[in-house]
Amino acid sequence: MARLSCGIEVTCIVLFALNITFLAFGFCLVGFGTYIKVSKKFDIALSEHISTAIIGGEAIETAGVILIIVGVFTVLLSAFGCLGALLKNRIFLYLYGIILSILILLELAAFIIMMSSRVRIRDSYHSGLWRVFTNAYGNNRPDLIAAVEELEREFKCCGVYGFSDYFQVLQKIPSSCYLDQSFTQPIFGKGCADAFIDWMWDEVPILSGIVAAILIIEIFGVITSFAMAAAVSHYSYGRLDGKKFHETAV
User: Fold this and answer.
1) pLDDT tens digits for 225-242?
2) Is the separation of the CB atoms in 223 and 18 below 8 Å?
3) Which residues contact 1 (CB under 8 A, 6 or more apart)?
4) CATH code given to domain 120-198
5) Chain region(s) in the chain for CATH 1.10.1450.10
6) 178 pairs with which residues across the strands?
7) Model confidence over 144-186: pLDDT tens digits?
8) Which residue(s) pair with 187 in the sheet?
9) pTM over 0.70
10) Segment 6-23, tens digit of pLDDT
11) Per-residue DSSP letters for 96-138?
12) From CA 97, how far away is CA 103, in angstroms rounded?
């Protein structure tokens, strides 16, 4: 193919650079999804009991898996976009733009659903964490007890609903419920279910900003890919018409 116009070449470079950014973002999603699955903060939710009806834990487990899947998909889509930009293939570019448009709609729908489900998420996590809590102390599970205490230390909370939860399982309040871990300072007043959910929702403004930035970049990617595809098509048809005119003149 002969050299394209300067505008198309610049668009190609911009699209390629944009997809390199998407590629890095995809790897970040995979990393964060993996972090959710292995972080100590999520040990409670990721215990073996998520296979039961503990939807709170299942939601977090699913979130990690979804992030990994979305990350892998983003990496593949970015590679596809890079290929389209390098080859200047209008079919690749149009397909990339269409797939990215669908992805934008899915991301918006997922974010809206999450924001409108706060009460349901809170209630389901309360009941799910309570099942884990009673199983940990009721069946004397050292692994789960350690996870509960780690959660209490991380989020400065006590029990599921509060410190009185320990009286229901006939257990003394552990040192992890105290500020200095030595039974001398006041007990953490907030239950871990509320503390965990509040922590999640405290991150919503940051999450909203990240989502907005991602959507802006993706929308720009859609516009750029369609513009470049149209430019390549116009250039190709122009070359074809010029060739036919030359052959007719000859």
Assistant:
1) 888 888 877 765 545 444
2) no
3) 88
4) 1.10.1450.10
5) 120-198
6) 187
7) 888 888 888 888 899 888 888 898 877 788 888 888 766 666 7
8) 178
9) no
10) 767 787 888 888 888 888
11) HHHHHHHHHHHHHHHHHHHHTTHHHHHHHHHHHHHHHHHHHHH
12) 10
